[in-house]
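User: I'm writing a short methods note and want a consistent example. For Cytohesin-1-like, I'll paste the sequence; you return only the structure tokens, no commentary, since I'll be parsing the reply automatically.
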Amino acid sequence: MTYQCNSPGRERKGSIAVSSMHNVSNWFSSLKRPKKAKPKQDKVSRSVWDLSLLSNGIKRAQLKDDLCEVVSEMESLDSGEDGKNSNKSKMMSIGRKKFNMDPKKGIEFLIEKGLLQNTPESVAQFLHKGEGLNKTAIGDYLGEKNEFNEKVLQSFVDLHDFTDLILVQALRQFLWSFRLPGEAQKIDRMMECFAKRYCDCQGENNIFENSDTCYVLSFAIIMLNTSLHNPSVKEKPTIDQFINMNRGINQGQDLPRELLVSLYDSIKAEPFKIPEDDGNDLMHTFFNPDKEGWLWKQGGRYKSWKRRWFILNDNCLYYFEYTTDKEPRGIIPLENISIRECQDRQKQFCFELYASGGADFIKACKTDSEGKVVEGKHTVYRMSASSDEERKEWIQRLTQSISHNPFYDMLASRKRKAQLYAKN
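Assistant:
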């Protein structure tokens, strides 16, 4: 039985598009740590999140302190001991913490308490000021697809003044005000708003025939940043390759060479700074997994079976040697792959992930015996569950996460639109 889900238009929770931008770089950099001594045995199978917090007392203490502070502040408000201004300040502090934990509920709380007006402009100003706000939470809220949030996004972008800034400078300012979410559709909406705003700010000095050109070039710059500064990319793009990649995107015309050279030199000299929120490490990925549990995994080169702790979240499958490990042994982005049941002579209840869509290998990375990050070369990942019921549940959850990467489709479509006039 084969399961496949390759619908490019599906709105999803995952982080597939991020592999085109910052997350792959983050995966590799987060895994490049000294190899740690492993415990001799693993007697527990509690949640990775719980166990990671137990092994990291500082972060757990910080989380408890935040929650206790919220509770104490709310009790203080109820007691009426503080003055009106003090109460307002405390409620704003509570609202910020609520926003960082759940953006939607945080905004609802602030509106309910009269600290924000129920208008896109008021919410956008609050997010743009950003005082005490988690930039990942800001990005998640701005990326939500509903009428109110889309108006907030537009108002948020309009608060940026890109007048007299070259495109790289505008991108640096924009991408520092929040952290891009992982979903391709969210990134598309955000970058479309950015491109329109940038063109409007340039007025008569705008060299782009339309915002589609700005959109395509913006993504070209972001991908150039990844290619030039990601240590896993061995062959760095040259200035001529960057220029050739962007030929004909200005309604069939080429952009000035000196412009592209200046953009290339700026990114080469100084990479983008991606906002990093306090405590926003890899373990946050595993706070609320779609599924987690023990599976037997067959090796690639040597077909031996090893027991691994698997976590499925954000359209990625992670596996660990122990539930207490903070860093995964391997990461498998569930992109352009399929899943099927299979039979094996050594194990029961087997299923496997295999490359689809014309790919030769499954895109993945893992740590080797020396702790170095290496690219996976699997054509198939075969796993064994403890029961047929467990296998079916893993297949169901994985199938829901597997999808074609729509990011490339949207970018290619926008590029074709920008180049359309070359054929007319």
